[in-house]
Amino acid sequence: MKNIIPIIRPTLIDYESVEDEFREVWNSGQVTVSKYTELFEQSVCKTLAVRNAIAVSSCTSGLMLAVKALDLKGEVIVPSLTFTATAHSIMWNNIAPVFCDSNKGTYTIDTKKIGPLITKKTSAIMPVYIFGLPPEINKLERLASKHNLKLIFDSAQGLGARYKGRLAGGFGDAEVFSMSPTKVVTSIEGGLVTTNNDELAGKIRQMRDYGKSIDGEDIDYIGLSSRVSEFHSIIGLKNFKKMAQLIKKRNELITYYKKCLDGLKGISFQKIPPCCKSTGNYMVIFIDGEKAKTTRDEIHQYLKEKGIQTKKYFYPPLHMQKAYTIYRRKYQGRLQVAEKASREGLALPLFSHMSKKIIFNICNELKKIL
């Protein structure tokens, strides 16, 4: 196991830097949604210039709560090229996902394809920050406004991303971020819901604790047990303060990857528009099986044998997953960009404290097979 290069490894602060706070929480007995959770939420609001931030147990539960709190019904339009939690949050609310194709190059949701998918049943659009890249936010906001739809961003990989100079967090009706171990800024486990809608924020705060009334004597809403512990909030707060540094390092490593792999036939990368700044959450290459010397799956297996972990990402697209079999016949073959990207995408090892020497060695193995 020592020789395996992991695809991801959480970048954490030194344990000594949290030891005193951990001991304080441990001794106080106030171990969940207390002082440090409030400090964390306040820091997020200040940095992201957003009115409200609600810390939750995961991005998935945050999405579930946001969908429920907005009282969505019928259908919600989502990209098929995304992690399964995007559609799971909708299905858990008894809402039908309507799958949309992706843009070539950026792989974010194709705004040109959304219009024809809107029906009387549509209540919202849920775009995704793909690998940390913001979607076409202005176009999405215009579409939502024109058709009187809610707009929720699955910003799981987007904490620290920028769109036209503005940090993610205050777009649409709500944005939901992940702080799991695979994210640039991690609290080990956890998520954040951000919104400029005070009423919505208050509702979600109650709903993360089952939906309890303010005085705790009744239940106002159908909620979840989605509280976050003080220990996770301490780690999240410490790492969040290093967000800019962590993202800078990630993007430097991605640039080095691209330099090392430049010129390899059949290999392409996600395109980053000038108006956007990605978090660099994943380093994904796309292998065109017709142009490259070998296929994505063969490269995946070859690197595995060499002790290098990779991930077929996102694979399969949602409409092709077993859990969504009922949608396969309707969508298969229609979402061509998403299906092609899913066949070709391969995430390579990337974490903020990774050395360039490791990247150099990975790229040398890729060159051998390509």
Summarize the structure in short:
With 370 residues, this protein is an alpha/beta fold.
Structure keywords:
370 residues, 4-stranded antiparallel sheet, Aspartate Aminotransferase, domain 2, alpha/beta, 36% helix, Aspartate Aminotransferase, domain 1
How would you describe the overall organization of this protein?
It is a single chain. The protein is 36% helix and 15% strand. The chain has a seven-stranded mixed sheet, with helices on both faces. Strands 10-12-14-13 form a four-stranded antiparallel sheet. The chain contains twelve helices and 14 strands. The radius of gyration is 21 Å and the shape is globular.
The geometry reads as globular
The largest pleated sheet is described as: 7 strands, mixed
Q: What value does the Rg take, in angstroms?
A: 21 Å
At CATH level 3, the topology of the largest domain is: Aspartate Aminotransferase, domain 2
CATH class of the largest domain: Alpha Beta
Number of helices: 12
Going by CATH, the homologous superfamily of the largest domain would be Type I PLP-dependent aspartate aminotransferase-like (Major domain)
Which structural class should the secondary elements be placed in?
A: alpha/beta
Binned strand content: 5-15%
CATH architect. name of the largest domain: 3-Layer(aba) Sandwich
Mean pLDDT: 97
Strand order within the widest beta sheet: 1-9-8-5-4-2-3
Element pattern in H and E? HHEHEHEEHEEEEEHHHEEEHEHHEH
Q: Total domains, how many?
A: 2
Layout of strands and helices, then pairs:
Elements: H1 16-28, H2 35-48, E1 52-56, H3 59-69, E2 75-79, H4 85-91, E3 96-100, E4 122-125, H5 137-146, E5 150-154, E6 162-163, E7 166-167, E8 174-178, E9 191-195, H6 198-207, H7 230-240, H8 243-261, E10 267-269, E11 276-277, E12 283-287, H9 296-305, E13 311-312, H10 325-331, H11 336-344, E14 345-348, H12 356-369
Parallel strand pairs: 2-3, 2-4, 4-5, 5-8
Antiparallel strand pairs: 1-9, 6-7, 6-11, 8-9, 10-12, 12-14, 13-14
